[in-house]
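Researcher: Go.
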Amino acid sequence: MIDEIINVTDKYINTKSKVERKKIGQFFTSKETAIFMANLSRSHKEKIKILDAGAGTGILSIALLEKLNNIQDIKSIEIDLYENDENIALILEKNMQRVKNSITKLKKIKIIKDNFILHNENTTERIYDIIISNPPYKKIGKNSKEAIAMKDVVYGQPNIYFLFMEMAERVLKDDGEMIFIVPRSWTSGAYFKKFRQKFLDNVKLTNIHLFVSRDKVFSRENVLQETMILRAIKSKETPPKVIITESYSNSDFNKINKYEINYDLCVENNDERYVYLPTNEKDIKVLRTINRFDTKLNDLGLKLKTGLTVDFRNESSLEKKANSNNVPLLSSIHFKNGIIQFPSKLEEPQYIKKDNTSLLQKNMNYLFIKRFSSKEENRRVQPAIFLKNQFNNYDFISTENHINYICTSDNSEIQEDLLYGLYVLYNSTLYDQYYRILNGSTQVNATEVNNIPIPNENEIKKMGKYLRENKDLSSDNCNNILMEVIDNE
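Model: Structure:
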């Protein structure tokens, strides 16, 4: 049956451009992914009510129905399917009529041609035993109807997929299960914090599946996305373990790496509620090692900020040569083996006019960290030391928006021992691995770095002093210096 549905779906995809479907966040689940998600279900109740919150052509629902129909304990199944695209809804209706004849335990089908979020905005009913969904993925305005309806979990510009997750949690029965395929981005970052806090208070993760490849999950769609599959249960009780699995793509679920980790190591219980995704024993050791530290940047009067100048918005202020009316504009092109080399030999603007004071910052000691790296690069966290005495001719500098910088909260100077010690941390393999476990994207976010545990100030200064003395800025040397502190602990 599912093969028939896939064929119908492929015919529809061929009639619509990717641009058209991307506007509404419409990406269809593959057969292999649908079967894998269906097999995550553990429900054996005699009567089961299912919700597919973004049904599309019914691929996920049909995979789940075929699985449940073969479970002896289950006697009766009802299903509600939401689909508010009229063209898709017509296909869905025909597909579900086909299914009705082959799924003997299916007693009732209800297709709701409405917006899932708005339709359930004021509901207090918890009526579903299983919710399965491949929700739409698209950013929506913070003043959109959906964002206003769920303002308690919205911060900044939301992506509609996590609103689907939260609304599903609200209509799920106690002890019910939800199975979603979604971007990985919700597991960390400031934009998802309010959502994580509420969602993870009410449901508990039991299974997480990760994909090594970003472009092989929605392979028919040519989508580049860090994607995950999750199963969660509606419960206040925390399970002892989370099962984390990993495959390369959506076509090799028969080649899965599987790992069980303690729940509290996966789901942080503090204010941020980050979800860490280790996939092997080495990752777990990294988490345990760094989580032993109880200091954060803010405790030292420090914070990581994002560079001030967005170059394409300030093109009229950029200049290629130094003069008395401009200052250096530091960017990732100036990172060279752990230090800042300025100017670069590249032929592009590297100075900015002084007339826009909002883009200027005091010439002080900073630790710069690149905001972006490519998926193929060995390191995600890439720091470089900036010393003010390299730029004695300038009272001010500017930083381009594709880099971050660590500074003091009170705009005072960072001592060089502390600066070099911070470089040891963020240039170490250990902290790079930690960040990769926390965040699957290629962007280094200030909020997350500010919340990573670090050694205390005296230990960081000792590391910095040693690094200044031996002048070896390599990652290997930083690893050795950091491991000495860890071994002493």
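Model: The longest strand covers residues 172-183.
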